[in-house]
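Retry 2 of 3 after timeout on previous attempt. Resubmitting structure tokens to design endpoint.
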């Protein structure tokens, strides 16, 4: 009931422009002055990530690393098909072949079953309900961001910063933690085995101020045992982004076993300080300004462990 259409190869040096973003299977890479898709769902063909299905609004150019799936059945609406393909993201990802990079097995993709109501009217009603729910979820996300900003503002109003401590003690993070270190500097070997593999976090999983477990990677047991012997994260630890997006901290509130990459620092608070208090203290704008002043590196910002240890709260 579907037709698969591939994108077209373009090269930035030859085709680069300023008008329309170029998408493959992932996010936009550069722009050119022509488009070949508009308001379309795209699926990654090469170098698949765990989010291999995405909807792109507006006009854009789809390159040859992505494809679109379009209805060729008069009883199947495109909008319903799009929702269905989004729901199949994890199954489509599992169709990827390869070790270093996963490439989509198109033959297997074509064999996937599409289940849909006979009535297009029913299909459109389902789509409308899903769109409504999606809008509510997005509003809730925005509200959570606003509430988090409010919490930070209240914290700042109550305690000020290190230059206006209002009679409170000022201490360095090294004085408040029994351990401050970072994850492995070794480039990990990942596995698609989510059952026998072990969870592996990097800075991308902590950018919202909480751990996002949705699109995490996994490493094989052999590598996990090596990493865990050196550093074993535990409930109550704080994870701090130290490479790329820096200065954002999250609290570990689970007993799940996992390992971390070098882009995350692990801070283990001592028993004399409330862990959630320290979380808010680190995410406070006064602390973040200290981080920003101490960033090292020209390209990707890098927050060194030594700078983290002497940061004051």
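Retry 2 succeeded. Sequence:
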């Amino acid at each position: 009931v579907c037709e698969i259409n591939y994108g077209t190869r373009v090269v930035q040096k030859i085709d680069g422009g300023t008008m329309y973003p170029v998408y493959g299977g992932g996010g936009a890479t550069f722009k050119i002055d022509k488009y070949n898709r508009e308001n379309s769902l795209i699926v990654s063909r090469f170098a698949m990530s765990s989010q291999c299905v995405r909807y792109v609004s507006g006009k854009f150019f789809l390159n040859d690393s992505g494809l679109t799936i379009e209805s060729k059945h008069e009883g199947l609406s495109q909008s319903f098909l799009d929702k269905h393909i989004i729901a199949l993201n994890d199954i489509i990802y599992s169709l990827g072949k390869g070790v270093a990079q996963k490439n989509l097995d198109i033959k297997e993709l074509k064999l996937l079953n599409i289940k849909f109501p006979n009535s297009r009217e029913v299909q459109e009603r389902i789509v409308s309900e899903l769109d409504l729910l999606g809008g509510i979820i997005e509003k809730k996300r925005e509200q959570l961001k606003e509430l988090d900003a409010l919490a930070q503002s209240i914290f700042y109003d109550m305690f000020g910063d290190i230059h206006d401590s209002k009679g409170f003690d000022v201490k360095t993070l090294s004085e408040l933690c029994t351990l401050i270190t970072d994850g492995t500097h070794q480039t990990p070997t990942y596995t698609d085995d989510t059952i026998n593999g072990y969870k592996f976090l990097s800075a991308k999983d902590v950018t919202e101020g909480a751990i996002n477990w949705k699109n995490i990677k996994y490493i094989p047991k052999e590598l996990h045992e090596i990493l865990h012997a050196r550093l074993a994260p535990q409930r109550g630890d704080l994870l701090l982004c130290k490479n790329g997006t820096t200065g954002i901290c999250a609290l570990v509130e689970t007993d799940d076993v996992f390992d971390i990459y070098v882009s995350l620092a692990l801070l283990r608070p001592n028993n004399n300080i409330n862990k959630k208090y320290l979380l808010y203290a680190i995410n406070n704008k006064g602390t973040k300004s200290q981080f920003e002043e101490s960033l090292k590196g020209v390209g990707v910002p890098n927050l060194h462990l030594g700078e983290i240890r002497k940061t004051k709260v």
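Attempt log closed. Residues 129 and 135 are 10 Å apart (CA to CA).
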